[in-house]
Amino acid sequence: MKTTTDHPSTTESYSFPTISGLNGSKCICPCKGQITETQAEFKKRMENTRKELTVKRNATSQYIATKISAPDERVSSQTMGALAIIMLSVIAGLIIIPDILYFLKKIF
Q1: Which residues are CB-contacts of 23 (< 8 A; sequence separation ≥ 6)?
Q2: Quick one: which of 9, 23, 54, 64 is 20 to 30 A from 81 by CA?
């Protein structure tokens, strides 16, 4: 058995009230007065606003957080750091100690 139902289609249209401004333009909101600001004044005001709202990249908390070293309390990290310091010290010592001995031999 097949049943069909007819639904009447309705179309509703809305129109927003427009008010003619003093300068002849149509806008939704009424303007209290005529705009007396020139294009140059507007650009200057926009530039000043842009300068006030601009934030330096190196002044943000996100940038500062990238420059701060967080402590790492893991034993493995501390052990690796200690081994790196020891290895670098040994390598530097192997390079510098013979020079110091040679220098001391020449002086005395």
Answers
A1: 34, 35
A2: 64
The secondary structure element, H or E, covering residue 5 is none
What count of Cα atoms within 13 Å lies in the side-chain half-sphere of residue 105?
6
Longest dimension (CA), the chain: 119
Residue found under tokens 């996100």? 62
Model pLDDT for residues 2-20, shown as the tens digit of each residue:
555 555 555 555 555 555 5
- Whole-angstrom distance, CA of residue 91 vs CA of residue 62: 37
The number of angstroms, rounded, from the C-alpha of 99 to the middle of its chain's C-alpha atoms is 51
Residue in the block written with tokens 């893991």: 74
Residues 6+ apart with CB under 8 A from 22: 31, 33, 34
**Banded model confidence at residue 74, pLDDT cuts 50, 70, 90:** very high
Residues 28 and 17: their CA atoms lie apart, in Å, by 7
Across-strand partners of 27?
19
